[in-house]
User: Fold these one by one.
Assistant:
Number 1:
Amino acid sequence: MYRKQVRRRRAILVVLVVACLMLISISISEADSGPLHSIQRGVSTVLSPVAEGASRALKPARDLVDWFNETWKARGENDDLHDQVAKLRAELLATEKAAEQAGYADKLGELMNGTGLTGYTPVDASVIGRSFSLWYGTIKISAGSSDGVSRNDAVITEDGLIGRVSEVTGGTSEVTLITDSSSGAVTARVVGKGPEGLVSGVVGAPGRLDFGLIQGDKEVKDGDRLVTAGFTSDSGLSSRYPADIPIGEVVETIPAEQQQREQVNVEPFADLADLSQVTVLTGGGE
Amino acid sequence: MIVTPQIVVRLALIVLVTVLLQFAFFSQVPILGSVANLLPVVVVSLGLLGGAVTGSVIGFVTGLLIDVLIGGTLGVASLSLMAAGYLAGRWREGYDIVSSLVPPLLAGALTALTALVYGLLTLTLGVDAPVSILAIREVLIQGLLGILLAIPVFPLIRRAVRPALVDDAGRARSRAAGRFSRRGGTFGMMRRQGSV
């Protein structure tokens, strides 16, 4: 009896491990239009309304935790500033959502007009879910193909670039953040001077970006601001991201003597750890 | 664990609610520069209560569901959560839970292990980006948060699946018969043999 139980347990374990390995293998090797990805998209489409409902229902709880987080951070400040922050926070909590959205729209309008993104159609969306590990920086948003969102559309907030659409269903989309190691690098340039390079995520440090493969004579220094380069080649090859979207600021440069190559650490302008509302740039610039 | 259709429905609901909570709440609330991971805590709790097979299957299904929902590489979360569920179940089959500290500590350790396995699998599959030493801090923080989460979660899960637990059913029967219940005995022996 005991041996039979052990054999059964081992058999189930082996079946599950083999199933996992097969799923991983197929998931990686298969094209996006393959059957497994199609099933994944189908199930995701079915579950999305439930997830969106859960996200809306849990928003007050998230706000409460955010409130506690912010309170904890504010403890280090002086009494006057602390009182002021508490007052502002109370006002912020009392503010209508519509007013918040209007403020967001104003800032976004400034960003879009200032960066020449007026050829794109902005689609606002709420963040309804987020990946649970720092190895995948992905979020799910409440806008999909029915809103005009397409794969590889750039996604921004009022502060700057946050990522691109990596998967689309009817009413939701998955956004791969620029800090995700699988999102691919973003071509970027330093504002004013022009050295160009590639910005990519750093695994284990979700709030940091790496600026590498820098081309150009001028040196990159702390405080330099990076924007998307948005290149287009003669052959028609072009960047996924429109030009001149703010990305982040250089916070640390480590000379090549200490590393295999010069390392430039960049802090994104957008607070990627606390996203609630985002905008997808649809349609492509004309 | 006595698996009946009602218990299967309860387990399915627990998994669904856990995944939705993780997806829509815990993943969006940064704590100490990381996020709390409820998934391994629930999987470990069910492994501790139901044994290795229950833990493995729940880990597999939970991982599959979160991967489908968030669009990750299918199988990676399943494999790491399955390992946590299996190890928790093996612990339960080999040792008694002699202290109320055991479930949280085990949940914390296996949550850290899940994060580590998940990270190593992702690295093995190819990460085209520099890897920061801060990834180790992430593993440790997730373990710590796992301990804290398990303090309320384990009793809740135990309560939810109580009708299926042989120990609790045995105690209830003993109480009803007016006898003293003793830890171990027939049920303890059966459990150690992995037959329940």
Number 2:
Amino acid sequence: MSGVIVIAPIVATAAWPVLCSAAAAVMGAVGLTAVNAQANITTDVATETNTRVELDLANSEEVGTTIRRDEELVFANDSLKVIFSRDTRGKLKICVEGSGYSKAELEQFGRDIAGRVVQQYAYQRIVQEMQARHLSVVDQSVDADDNIHIKLRGWED
Amino acid sequence: MPAREIDIQIAPDGTVRATVSGIKGPACQELAKELAQIIGQELSFAPTAEFYECEEHRDVDIEDQSRT
């Protein structure tokens, strides 16, 4: 071995397309599907019975001009809705709404989702960028604790 | 040509731990730093024994070759 590095991912500038892809993968895994943001906001979202929490996406920075301030990514099922958007500072935030859930439950769900989205974001960025550097994925797996393992291999020039 | 390998573990909170192997010397740290720049902020880097091994150099005697 040569060295071990530990990195905290940052959802970076102009990474909105990668984030959309990561969010879609995570939301699909928990049974939420993408919905049309504008249509949904005017219909069933803000009912009085819904509980709503808002969370900052940890380690996010200005997402650049690839997302407008009013642009949102919305996922929903029968009882939950998750909205990814850009706040006034340009950072990403997650809003979780649901009926029949406490604020604490929604906050926990939101934090779990946020972590998984960052995990998927890191996975997609690593694979994409390392392949561009002639390192190929030779093995990958997910363990019982939901850690993603990737082995990349290349040949020195 | 030796293989260079990176073993990566991405935790559910997104934290990435990468073990770079097959690269001796500072080039290993350069690749690790490059990885950090791609996805976020480096929290720590711990070199291992191989890190301190010298890169291989091969000397070519040009004078001798020109005489043949």
